[in-house]
Amino acid sequence: MLFNSLAFLIFLPLVFVTYWYLLGRVLRWQNAFVLAASYFFYGWWDWRFLGLLIFSSCVDLFLGLAIERATKRRKRRTWLALSVITNLTLLGFFKYFDFFIGGFHDLLEALGFNAHMPTLRVILPVGISFYTFQSMSYIIDVYRGQVKARRDPLVFLAFVGFFPQLVAGPIERARDLLPQFERPRQFDPEGAKDGLRRMLWGFFKKIVIADNCADLADRIFALEASSTPGITLFFGAFFFAFQIYGDFSGYSDIAIGCARLFGFTLSRNFNYPYFSRSIPEFWRRWHISLSTWFRDYLYIPLGGWTTRWGRWRNILITFTVSGLWHGANWTFMGWGALHGAYFLPEVVGNKRARRDLPMLRDLPRILWTFFLVTLAWIFFRAATVHGALLHVVHVFINAGEHPGAVLLWLLSPQFLLIALLVGIEWSTRRGSHALERLPRSVFMRWGLYAMITFAILLNIDLHAPHAFIYFQF
């Protein structure tokens, strides 16, 4: 079920009313209802894959208990390995089977063999990368002794399948979200109001910003790079940069806001990433739940910051694997490896991470970081590595052609919307979202709500809504 669909606009109020006003304050009933609503939400897309979600959750529920009961380290490691293998096998089959078969087929042909290896055309279950990683982090934390294994199936299944963040995150840690299912929840009017404001801003970023930028980005990436002005190719990447930001951070805002309506607090997933002054800072602000997941469960176990060569190796491995996590295509691996390469100068220079607030004096660093990130987005968006390389090369080769096109793009409605977004987020960057701190005047507040709502209604298509980009991951 899409957040920006008519079905969700009916689903959410019904779930909200039932949860708070018909179930009372009985925690077990609330958890059971959240689980049922979550499975209905997921099954709305394709009920056949609901069994996969339940199977994956049940495996880790029982293996978590087995790890905690085991007294010998060898047995604990066996149960951990069984969980990781099961999760990665499911993820690998549904997401990467055809990719690796195709790669093996190409390798055999390159070696001179006449290979015939049919693919299965496996359908990718929505959200499998997200709920698999969330469940795996629980098992690893149980093994490390950082969380206790849960015995209540309702609590654990609801933790894995919680509908606001089930299909595109944030990827929640067990120590943060599980306890929220175990303690009584009471309706918090102020929290609910903040959740609604955050959802409103998320819908604005998705429907008004991302979906409008998508139209231009799609048209430009469909052009022949060699015969297209470089400035047009750059603006294709520029509009895609804001498409994916509006799309994904918009989803995260809706998810976090929606969870607050039900008394849950989800982790922050975006912290104004395009105001970053370096690539490491960008990754502390972009898809925070995934970048910290790879840091804690891949980079550090690989050795983290050992020798200089070890750092470089581990950084490149982590970013390349994170690229592969996004999809079964060499372009995603190229995107990840490129960000890993961006990271290396920061490691060589041993620069300290900046955690202060970005200011106007940082504008040159912000623009340079955004330029590097935008070039990398070309690999993320392109259909093939060859197409991405052509796009990047001709951005520079054709840079002198049609310089007047710059003004045309700067005056486009999409660019003006982006300028509005950037201006609002810059002025509110001290908060967790743009509508967190509002004018005291009731008329100004409700006037702002009305303008945002009107912009959303002008652009929304409830009958054929645009899917979120990260649903494919």
How does this model look, in words?
The structure is a single chain. The protein is mainly alpha-helical and 473 residues long. The chain is built from 18 helices and no strands. The protein has helices at residues 6-22, 27-43, 50-69, 73-110, 128-144, 153-161, 174-182, 189-221, 230-261, 279-285, 288-302, 308-326, 330-349, 363-381, 385-397, 405-410, 413-427, 442-459. Helix 1 packs antiparallel against helix 2, helix 3 crosses helix 4 and helix 6 packs across helix 7. The mean pLDDT is 88.
Question: What is the topological layout?
Answer:
Layout: H1 6-22, H2 27-43, H3 50-69, H4 73-110, H5 128-144, H6 153-161, H7 174-182, H8 189-221, H9 230-261, H10 279-285, H11 288-302, H12 308-326, H13 330-349, H14 363-381, H15 385-397, H16 405-410, H17 413-427, H18 442-459
Helix pairs in contact: 1-2, 2-6, 3-4, 3-5, 3-6, 4-5, 6-7, 8-9, 8-17, 8-18, 9-14, 9-15, 11-12, 12-13, 13-14, 14-15
Largest sheet: none
Helicity range: 55-70%
Tally of helical runs: 18
Element pattern in H and E = HHHHHHHHHHHHHHHHHH
As a whole number of angstroms, the C-alpha radius of gyration is 23 Å
Number of strands: 0
Sheet/helix structural class: mainly alpha
How would the global form be characterised? globular
What's the N-to-C terminus distance?
16 Å
User: Low-confidence parts lasting 5 or more residues at pLDDT below 50?
Assistant: none
